[in-house]
Amino acid sequence: MGDTCAVVWDESVLDYDLGGEHPLHPVRLDLTMRLARSLGLLDDVTPVPPRPASDEDLLRVHRPDYLAAVRSAPTSAWDVGYGLGTEDNPIFDRMHEASALIAGASITAAEQVVSGRADRAVNIAGGLHHAMPERAAGFCVYNDCAVAIAWMLEQGVERIAYIDVDVHHGDGVQTAFYDDPRVLTVSLHQHPITLWPGTGFATETGGPGAEGSAVNVPLPPGTGDADWQRAFQAVVPSLLADFRPQVLVTQSGADAHREDPLADLAMSVDGQRASYRSLRDLAQRYAGGKWVALGGGGYSLYRVVPRSWTHLLATALDRDLDPATSLPQDWLAHALRVAGNVPLPTSLTDGEDSSFAPWTGVTESTVDTAIRDARHALFPLHGLDPADVRD
């Protein structure tokens, strides 16, 4: 077993660029890595370069006609369909190559962990969890999360848990494995009645033969750090203890932050840091320390994502940073040049207390109702008592 964390990175992943003022701008990745380096997190870390996913890799999840459409889209004179050429998923030059590299980067992270060269691996460029077998969706061309999980199953891994903390439902990954009992998909997200893609109800629990393999915890708009943590801790650890994954894969979208322009949850960077520490703890307790951490959404490009994912890198590297740490002047100077008139924070904290009160049953809180609904939908399928509130 390895005792290191691999950081999968090469600047070529910045070529996944949907153009112009698109919300999923690669500047957020560049600023994250610059901040991590400026803080010394990566001083003795040699990044692992990604390899592009092969057609064989992609076809474990995506349809052949969809791959052909992605390849031809930049030069096609016709409407290619397949969710391509929309406002969310504009066509861009070398789209297949850039998208295959993101998927390959997540496979590279999985390879590091499955081979034992590392216990943990991080690919902040990954987490494109909305892409479906036959179409692009939600800024995602290829579903690198599902492609990496499918690769691990092909290598003989028998049980994989996927936890998605993006503000949007992890619909593409759930779809890919809805009928596969080898994969437990867990998603905590803003309630689908209030946010795209409109899926991820607590009653979505897995297909025939895989009942209980899909876990959804839809949260009401305005959910902040304490309520988010209470929901997470009231549902997820018990299910992982029962499932006993061999590898934990996480999608670490930073868009549940209160400043994110595309959603309505109210977490802080401090709460997101706490969530990453919880994921690390779950990997240690239930997955033998094997953790593949991917990026995801996050559209406060300058103020939130670089700080949040710097905490993710620090957590995976066991180099936890004091939230009060000041942002380095060299990073601030560069960020100011690219951010324009956006005011920047000065430290790694939003000044919030990320502690929470454990769930003890339903109160008047709508979050507690969401917890109850998720536990009642899932716990009996795992032989667990939804009313048992013991730690």
TrEMBL record:
> GO biological process annotations for this chain's record?
acetoin catabolic process; epigenetic regulation of gene expression
Q: Which SUPFAM superfamilies match?
A: Arginase/deacetylase (SSF52768)
- Give the UniProt family note: Belongs to the histone deacetylase family.
| Taxonomic lineage of the native organism | Bacteria, Bacillati, Actinomycetota, Actinomycetes, Pseudonocardiales
Q: What GO molecular function terms would the record report?
A: histone deacetylase activity
Query: What Pfam family does this protein match (any one)?
Result: Hist_deacetyl
- Pathway where it operates: Ketone degradation; acetoin degradation
The UniProt keywords, alphabetically, are:
Acetoin catabolism
Query: Which PANTHER family would you find in this protein's record?
Result: HISTONE DEACETYLASE HDAC1, HISTONE DEACETYLASE HDAC1-RELATED
**Cross-referenced InterPro entries, in alphabetical order?**
AcuC (IPR003085), HDACs (IPR000286), His_deacetylse_dom (IPR023801), His_deacetylse_dom_sf (IPR037138), Ureohydrolase_dom_sf (IPR023696)
Q: What is this protein called?
A: Acetoin utilization protein AcuC
Q: Which residues form the Histone deacetylase domain?
A: 22-315
